[in-house]
Structures are given as C-alpha cells and as structure tokens.
Amino acid sequence: MIKNDLFLKALRGETVERPPVWMMRQAGRYLPDFMKLKAKYDFFTRCRTPELATEITVMPIHQVGTDAAILFSDILVVPQAMNIEVQMKPDFGPWLPNPIRDRTSLDQVIVPDVYEELGYVYEAIKMTKKELNDEVPLIGFAGSPWTIFCYCVQGQGSKNFDKAKEFCFTEPQMAHELLQKITDTTIAYLKGKVEAGVDAVQVFDSWGGMLSPVDYQEFSWPYIQQIIDALKDMIPVIAFGKGCWFALDVMAKSGASALGVDWTCSGRNARYLSGGNITLQGNFDPSRLFSPPKDIKRMVHEMIDEFGKDKYIVNLGHGILPNIPVENAKAFVEAVKEYK
Ligand code: CP3
Fold first, then answer.
1. Which protein residue's CA is at the shortest distance from atom 25 of ligand 1?
2. Quick one: pLDDT at residue 98?
3. CA trace torsion 183, 184, 186, 191 (10° rounding)
4. Which parts of the chain are coiled coil (predicted)?
C-alpha cells in the first residue's frame, strides 16, 4: 500500500536494492521552515496542534527526501499526561518543576486514559497519514521508561542523571513503581498510535548508557521488553539504546524488528554483538554532518559497506544537530540513494 516501502522491507529483513534512510530529529531546528514555526508557536503548542505537527512532520520528506517520516512530538508528552508538569524552556530544554523523589509525589503520578490526555497526538497521526498520501511510512515513538524516569526524577536534562540514579539505589521499590507506571502508560499510548495509523514504532532509550550493564538489566531493559511484548504482534518495533551496545545480545532476542546503535559501536561490532541476523539502524556521528558534502557521501558509503545493504536502516547515531546546513543533511540522504 505504501509506495516507498524500503523502510518496512528492511524491518522485515527483506532484500532491498539499497537501504532506507531517515534521521533521528529530522523534523527539527536545522530546517529554516521549522524555525519560522518555532518563532510563532511555543514547543507544546506545536506538539498539541495537529495541523502544526503535521506540517512539521512532512517537512523533511519534501525538503530532504528521507524514506520515512517520524511524527513531530516529544517523549515528554507522556509524563505530562501522567500528571507531572513538564515545561520546555527556550535555550534550556525540559524543565519539570516538581520532580518525583518521594512517596507523596509518586502517589500523585497517574496512569491516564491516553485517549483523553493524548488524543491530540492521535489526531496528528491521522492528519499526517492523509497528508503523506502513502508516499512513505510514518514512525510513531515513545521514550523508554528509564529515559522518561530520568527526566521525572532529575527534573531536567543532565550530563549524568545523578539524582535519577540516586533514587534507584536509595529507593529501589519506589523507582520500580514509577518505572512500571510509565511502562503501563507507554504501552497504552503506543497501542493508540498503532490504531491511529503509524507503520512502525521506535522506543528511544537515550539515557540507557548511563547505567552499568547489570543495572541496565534491572532498571531499563525489562520495561522495554514489556513494551516489545505488548506491541510486536501488532507492528514492527525498533529499540534504540544510546550507549547500550553492551545489551545488543539480549536486545536481539527480544522480538524487536530492529535495533538502533550509536557511533561508539562500529557496524562490524554491532553485527557481531547482535548475532548477525537482526536489522540494525544507525549510526553516523551527527557531528560528521559538518563535513563537506563530498566527504559525507564517501563516509556514508563506507558505513553501508560495513553494515551491509540488507537488514540495515541508514540513520544517525543520535539526533541531528541544530546548526547542520540543510545541504549537508541532503547529501547524507542522497548518498544513500546513490549507493550501488
Ligand atoms: O525525530 C523527530 O524529528 C521527531 C520529533 C522528536 C522531538 N523530540 C522533537 C523535539 C523526537 C523523536 C524527540 C524525542 C526526544 N525528546 C528524545 C529522545 C531522542 C533523543 O534525542 O535522545 C529526548 C531525550 C527528548 C527530550 C527533549 N525534547 C529534549 C532534551 C529537548 C531539548 C533539547 C533540544 O534538542 O532542544 C527537547 C525539545 C525538542 N523536541 C525539540 C524538538 C525539535 C527542540 C526544541 C524546539 O523545537 O523548541
């Protein structure tokens, strides 16, 4: 049904003439048209207005030519729906004025009716699907429970999420309670996205790499596994763990359709650690997009040679940086389309 189905083929592990390409955070601040809307509407207004979310989602499809769209939204709409206040402060990032660090605040966290609290996301998906007209697939996403937990407890971004980790080791029972509430909400939220029409979902464990391999298996992975178990028979699931190369063996056996990797793990090593059979996605260092376009193209071809063209989705190893020239983002995508 979808005209360009390279991305879905790669998720099914089918042979393709070239790998598909999209970029994490592709609907973002490096696009001048995005900046025009950012100047007019604050962050959560853009997320909550289906017309705006749709317009932003399709921008990179038309302007950069990626093989998949990812819905413009944010992972932090989930804690917002759970009765946790989340603000997006300009030039600062996420700000949660009442972080969850004790029994009283934990008890105020709810598992919401996602259709009531997050209906605007489902509206945006339906509108975007219409606008995309089956040209390319649409990816829906959520943060991993651990990554959402990091923001809920820390209250803001952090280089080490020290307060979030402190809570895990001083109040492990409460930590697990919060992680389970986030997981239950996320499963319901993603099922709603599937009903609304997304073609695949990605779970972003952006801060999984903050944990030791042993603690990752306690505080992050089991909750992602619950999400995969609940969704894998409905839709392909991609699990992206930044800095989580040490868990690729377990992740490969999870039922996920693909695993995202960042640039600290080579393609060769990622294939080895994941057992060689599962589709991998990644892992261009976003900073490398500052190189001249001809160098970007060479590096992309080298990357595809290393991962192999099949069971592979070309992507960055994390989100695109705001000050990347659009021409360079285009060179990244064109390089994949020129690959032979
Ligand atoms: O990928 C896409 O283009 C789809 C949209 C998307 C956004 N956030 C839009 C956004 C996605 C998939 C996310 C996920 C997200 N949000 C993650 C996981 C992926 C990752 O990058 O690690 C995380 C950790 C967040 C939380 C978040 N949202 C932070 C830390 C920030 C501020 C830092 C920053 O980059 O500015 C945001 C804000 C945000 N979310 C922006 C965008 C385009 C930029 C702010 C703005 O537009 O006003």
1. 75
2. 98
3. 140
4. none
Average of pLDDT values for 218-240? Answer: 98
On average, the pLDDT of the chain sits at 98
- pTM exceeding the 0.85 threshold for the entire prediction: yes
Strands, E assignment, 145-245: 200-205, 237-241
Q: For domain 5-338, is the CATH number 3.40.50.300?
A: no
Cβ–ligand 1 distance for 43 under 6 Å, the answer yes
In short, whether 319's Cβ falls inside 6 Å of ligand 1 is yes
Give tens-digit pLDDT for 255-273: 999 999 999 999 999 999 9
321 lines ligand 1 (CB under 6 A): no
Domain boundaries, the chain: 5-338
- Residues linked to residue 260 through DSSP beta bridges, in sequence order: 240, 281
**Ligand 1 atom 47: the closest Cα is on which residue?**
43
Residue 157 in contact with ligand 1 by CB distance below 6 A: yes
Q: How far apart are the CA of 144 and the centre of ligand 1, in A? A: 14
Task: Tell me what the mean pLDDT of segment 34-62 comes to.
Answer: 97
28 CA distance to ligand 1 centroid (A)?
8
